Amino acid sequence: MPQIRIVLLIILWFSFLGNAFGQTQLPTKKVIDKLTNQATKLRESGNFEKSLLISRLALRKALAIHDNVLIAENYNNVAANYNDLVEFDKAIFYYNKALIYANLTQNDTVKQRINNNLGNMYCFEKKKYEKGVVYYRKALEYSKKISDSSQMAFTNLNITWAFFDIGKFQEGEASLKMINAYYKRHNNNSIIVVLNMLNGMYCNYKNEDTKADFYFAEAIRLGKKLNEKSDLSFSHLEFSKFLLKRKDYKRAYENLDIYTKLNDEIYAEEKLEKANVEGINFELDEYKRTIDKIENEKDLQFQSLKKSRIIVLLFIIAIFVLLLFLNSLIKNNKFRLKSNADLMIANEELIIANKKAEESSILKTQFVSTISHELRTPLYGVVGITDLLLEEHKELAASPHLNSLKFSARYLLSLVNDILQINKIEENKIVLDSLTFNLADEFYMIKNSLSFIAKKNNNKVYIDVDPLIPESLIGDKLRFAQILMNLVSNALKFTKNGEVNIIAKQIEIRDKIHSIEIKIKDNGIGIDPLNQEKIFDKFVQVGRKELDYQGTGLGLPIVKRLLELFGSEIVVESELGKGTAFSFLISFEYNEDKTIDIINNIQVDLTSSQVFKVLVVEDNPINQLITKKTIEKNNYSCVVVEDGFKALDILEKQEFDIILMDINMPLMNGFETSRRIRQRDIETPIIALTAFDKNEITDEAIMAGINDIIVKPFEVVQLFKIINCLILKTKSVV
């Protein structure tokens, strides 16, 4: 701005005249104290623009009288303004400047306050907790020197919050007890909101849900009553985490939404934009003080040579040249500062958005993990009971209904896994299996499984398989069946009183790889040309004006992504009122020798002349029944206990050949139970039998001493293959 340049030139000129004709009267400490207090009150009321303006004036006067205490206090106030404006790097810079001046004094109160503020910055803004706690410890030392119990309480409050924030509840426990004792004596309302929140976090950690709920409710009530928006926002955030742990997803989302809205109110964009101008002016003042220092040095030279008119003339010329240089420098610096300010604003907005995205991602991950586990557990019951019915009632083995139930349950499990882990699909983390299957059998299984939809809409399903296609193909039949299930079910849902054709035609053979064109064709309602690209987007559903067309909107997106794993792409041809045809080219291997090897590998001899003893640690009654029957029908001895403590007790009395360990159990989870078993020098192999995704728990399972992981529902053959392998390996070592 031209005005700033002119003002600086005028200040420099009058400064020169002032040195020549007399000194300006210095300000008093009383005046500077008054300005400092005024700036502090303005900052606390949220008027950052005026607070920075007054702080700048007070700092200039404090520097003029070389009062290190006042300089430190005003730098601390400037830093606090930038802290409130979410410009954390600037805040840390000015807090450090304040600490430099404070360390030159004997004022422990100022040192305590600045160290505490730096602790806040590193712990809660920069997430460098170890460095932040070092500053907190220094602040506590100064608080003890000045015998200030309130400051000790605030610092202990910050230490507790820092440790709780990173999950180190045991390290923060002593500080929490100290704050609670302080509040009982003093009833300090300035800490009551955060204190209740911290008590709630600690009770949540201790699984004392009733107490935790009470403390969080108190924190929110008092935060509203005392209008402590910042503390109230964090209380809602921690309460949402507690509710999420209790699976109260609706209230968890409501509290998270309140936290977001409160944050938006606290950091209003208008205040940030207004304060940027004063922030730039403050930096210009810092630069001016550098110029003043240069002027003072020049003035000393002028005093020593003032009797020489030639030297005076040369000095004036030098000053003029310097002013021209400074004018150019300030102009360039102003442009740089403006560019930096714009970049910093954009960067801060990006950081805030990224932080919110990370928090949302963490909550989403926790939600997906929880739902995945909760869905797999009942599916294990469905699949297990179906297998038991087929085993115990051989007369039902030919029943198409029971076979369809088993197929549908397994398909539902695969669908649940893919829907809940669609990010995993998009990141190509799924590896296709190589299993042998018959293409026509898969088509008829799909037809039987979806017969209820066909009957509901009075549709006929026709299957046409090219006779050139071999009977046994090798590929991922479960993923292939999922693709077919989605396409055929869509065709049946959007067709009434019509027909659906499932067509397979061999296109070419190259190096034992058969390329087959699959087409799913119907004569239903069809798809508008404008919507044919949209149908492969997640959650998009077109042509749905009636309740008959139910669904999630994920079927076709999953089909598209699964086909990409097969190296294929889907093509749609449709006309409104005449029908739709989905087609894709997919390749499978045909190799008689390899097919025989695959079949031989999955046929494991489950009989054994020796009766192995199996300990099952499982809390779910249905899962206990299924696992026990599965083991006993294969001539193994089985003992079931419902928690980790009972497992430890029975292992003291009996020896087992293998342990099947559930992970998510009350009282003590499977990881802790396994750790305690290994601490007792029990080398019995442990297999984690869990509904959690294997990738989520592998690292922790290894650390706990678990030998292998099987995800429920499991293949019986695969289970006993792993059991036999681990038992024989252990016995051979012994």
SSE blueprint and pairings:
Blueprint: H1 2-21, H2 29-44, H3 48-65, H4 68-84, H5 88-102, H6 108-125, H7 129-145, H8 149-165, H9 169-186, H10 189-205, H11 209-225, H12 229-245, H13 249-266, H14 269-304, H15 309-392, H16 400-420, H17 422-426, E1 435-437, H18 439-449, H19 451-456, E2 460-465, E3 473-475, H20 477-493, E4 499-510, E5 513-522, H21 555-565, E6 570-575, E7 579-589, H22 592-602, E8 613-617, H23 621-632, E9 637-641, H24 644-653, E10 658-661, H25 670-679, E11 686-690, H26 694-704, E12 708-711, H27 716-733
Parallel strand pairs: 2-4, 8-9, 8-10, 10-11, 11-12
Antiparallel strand pairs: 1-3, 4-5, 5-7, 6-7
Coiled coil: 277-304
Keywords: Coiled coil, Kinase, Membrane, Phosphoprotein, Transferase, Transmembrane, Transmembrane helix
Transmembrane segments: 310-330
What can you see in these coordinates?
Strand 4 (499-510) and strand 5 (513-522) form a beta hairpin. The protein has a five-stranded mixed sheet, covered by helices on one side. Among the domains are: 432-597, 2-Layer Sandwich (Heat Shock Protein 90); 604-733, 3-Layer(aba) Sandwich (Rossmann fold), CATH 3.40.50.2300. Helix content is 66%, strand content 10%. The longest helix has 84 residues, at 309-392. The chain contains 27 helices and twelve strands. By secondary structure, the protein is α/β, with parallel strands linked by helices. It catalyses: ATP + protein L-histidine = ADP + protein N-phospho-L-histidine. GO terms for molecular function: phosphorelay sensor kinase activity. Residues 613-727 form the Response regulatory domain. It holds the Pfam family HisKA. Residues 277-304 form a coiled coil.
